[in-house]
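User: Hi! I have a protein structure encoded as tokens and I'd like to know what sequence might fold into it. I'm fairly new to this, so please keep things simple.
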């Protein structure tokens, strides 16, 4: 909870958290992004922070773009916004790119390393550990021919993205995190990778349900 008495939700992700609009190549309006919609649903007692960046991976360096490694930046993000009550991590799509040469199990291990790093950082800060929500990102669509990413993605990329749901679910269970499966959300046919505006609304609804469930359990535990 921050100094204003609000519960802080830090949303750490890639372009689908940033709000990349596949129709324009720009960014969805702020009101259309799932982070904003989630904040509106949760209300004034919550502060939802968008820490999405185009191209971010879980824990691996991208050729020519080392700064997009999510593991290298998560400590800075937590330090910037702490104390954090809920940490939402939705990453893995960019790890499926051809030039990353990663298997689904390696991508899931990247997510594991992110969660462990987040907990390590919060231990350094001597603050209560946030509830961590692992989100499996939307699966890449197979209709890649003629799209802007046809040279970066192929059938194996699609298969890798589809394999993440069960791996992330098992990981969440192993690490005692909440799991949200967004793998079936609607992805635009324009590029087969980015969420439609309707999918942003659907994701916000799923995360709202997950956070309210966690908050209710906390209130029961505190006898409120």
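Assistant: Happy to help. Inverse folding works backwards from shape to sequence: for each of the 224 positions I chose a residue that suits the local structure. Here it is:
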């Amino acid at each position: 909870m921050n100094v204003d008495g609000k519960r802080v939700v830090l949303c750490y992700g890639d372009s689908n958290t940033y709000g990349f609009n596949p129709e324009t190549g720009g960014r969805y309006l702020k009101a259309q992004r799932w982070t904003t919609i989630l904040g509106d649903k949760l209300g004034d007692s919550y502060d939802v922070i968008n820490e999405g960046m185009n191209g971010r991976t879980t824990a691996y360096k991208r050729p020519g773009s080392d700064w997009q490694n999510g593991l290298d930046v998560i400590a800075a993000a937590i330090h910037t916004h702490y104390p954090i009550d809920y940490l939402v991590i939705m990453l893995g799509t960019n790890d499926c790119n051809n030039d990353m040469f990663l298997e689904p199990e390696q991508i899931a291990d990247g997510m594991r390393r992110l969660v462990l790093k987040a907990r390590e950082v919060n231990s350094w800060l001597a603050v209560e550990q946030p509830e961590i929500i692992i989100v499996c990102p939307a699966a890449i669509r197979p209709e890649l021919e003629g799209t802007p990413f046809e040279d970066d993605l192929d059938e194996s990329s699609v298969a890798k993205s589809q394999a993440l749901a069960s791996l992330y679910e098992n990981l969440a269970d192993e690490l005692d995190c909440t799991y949200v499966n967004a793998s079936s959300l609607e992805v635009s046919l324009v590029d087969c990778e980015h969420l439609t505006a309707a999918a942003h609304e659907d994701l916000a609804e799923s995360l709202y349900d997950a956070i309210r469930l966690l908050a209710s359990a906390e209130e029961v535990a505190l006898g409120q």
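A useful reference point when you look it over: The chain has one domain: 7-221. Feel free to ask if any position seems puzzling.
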